[in-house]
Structure formats: structure tokens, C-alpha cells
Amino acid sequence: MPPDSPTESAWASLIRDVPDFPSPGIVFKDIAPLLADADAFAAMLAALAGPWRGAGIDAVAGIESRGFILGAALARELDAGFVPLRKPGKLPGAVLEEAYALEYGNDRLQLQAEAMPPGARVLLVDDVLATGGTLAAGARLLQRQGAQVVGAAVLIELAVLQGRMRWPCAAPLRSLRVV
Ligand code: AMP
């Protein structure tokens, strides 16, 4: 990292805790201030990409919606393509679908059936690992589509929720910040 780049604590300090959003009892991790700071965004992205450089990633799969922001940027860092995992009704053509439970509600994720060639080496990305249901659903979708899940990268892991326990793959799940 160049000497004038922000340290990890500099970019991490731009992640804002918002109590009781979007519902009472949830402390929302707002990454908007981090994304809005060019140097902090670059430093965070370099750290997120670091362990995966040279891993032969064909595509980064990002989970709607903040996983799109991180995932597309990470895909360019890794010279990989980008594949969106979306909420229902957004993707045209044949799709695969997985339902899952959230920290605040239930949801479903979809992947285009022909998004990647079989055996593609895919890195799954999201902003926050909370209860782990979203990331697990994403991994299951990729596996059903015939992709090889090389691992998962998340920016923030909420350790108390033990979402890591639900990660269904042998491949590594790496978090940049565990809080
Ligand atoms: P989960 O399936 O419980 O691991 O939830 C992870 C998904 O919900 C991610 O896509 C996050 O964007 C979002 N999420 C869950 N909890 C939070 C939180 N405390 N702050 C921000 N996003 C969250």
C-alpha cells in the first residue's frame, strides 16, 4: 500500500453504526461514508482483494445490493467478471432461486441459469455477514449452477451472530473486519 494511503483503522472508522435501522434492535453497518471517500475505498478494496490475488478467480458474484458495489469493484481488482445475485423479479430469462432467513425478515435470491460456464471459479462477496443465511443461499445458488465456489469475502462479520457456522462450503470465508 502506498505510504499516503489510509491505514485499516482509517477506512474502518468510516463505517457508521446506525442504531435501530431498519428496525428496532438492529445496529445497521452503514458503509456509505467509506464508499464516498476515494482513498478509503481504494485501501479497503486492496485489502479485500489481497488474499484472492492469483487464486484464478473467473468471476466475482455479488449479493444485492451492497454486494454489487463491492463485488463489481473487486472483480476489476481481480481481473474477473461480475455476476449479480439478485432479489426476485429482477433478472430476465431462466433463473435459479434460493430462499433464506435474514436478521430482519425473509428473502430470496436468484441467479441467471446460464450466468457462468460450468466449473467457473467464483468468489462470493457481500458487505456484512450477520446470521449467515444470505451468504449461504448465495453459495448454494452458485453450486447448483455448477460453479466452483473458491471462497467468500465479506467486509464486516458480526461475530456474535455466528453466521460463519452456516457457511456451507469447504472453501474459505474471509472477513476484513470482525466486530
Ligand atoms: P444475514 O443473512 O443475516 O447474514 O444478513 C446479511 C445480509 O443482510 C447482507 O446482505 C447485509 O447487507 C444485510 N445485513 C444484515 N445485518 C446487517 C447490519 N447489521 N448492517 C448492515 N447490513 C446488514
TrEMBL record:
One of its GO terms (molecular function) is adenine phosphoribosyltransferase activity. Its main location: cytoplasm. It catalyses: AMP + diphosphate = 5-phospho-alpha-D-ribose 1-diphosphate + adenine. It comes from the Bacteria. Keywords: Cytoplasm, Glycosyltransferase, Purine salvage, Transferase. Belongs to the purine/pyrimidine phosphoribosyltransferase family. One of its GO terms (biological process) is adenine salvage. Residues 55-157 form the Phosphoribosyltransferase domain. GO terms for cellular component: cytoplasm. InterPro entries: Ade_phspho_trans, Adenine_PRTase, PRTase-like, PRTase_dom. Pfam families: Pribosyltran. PANTHER family: ADENINE PHOSPHORIBOSYLTRANSFERASE (PTHR11776), PHOSPHORIBOSYLTRANSFERASE DOMAIN-CONTAINING PROTEIN (PTHR11776:SF7). Its EC number is 2.4.2.7. SUPFAM superfamilies: PRTase-like (SSF53271). Catalyzes a salvage reaction resulting in the formation of AMP, that is energically less costly than de novo synthesis. It comes from Pseudoxanthomonas suwonensis. Pathway: Purine metabolism; AMP biosynthesis via salvage pathway; AMP from adenine: step 1/1. Homodimer. This is Adenine phosphoribosyltransferase.
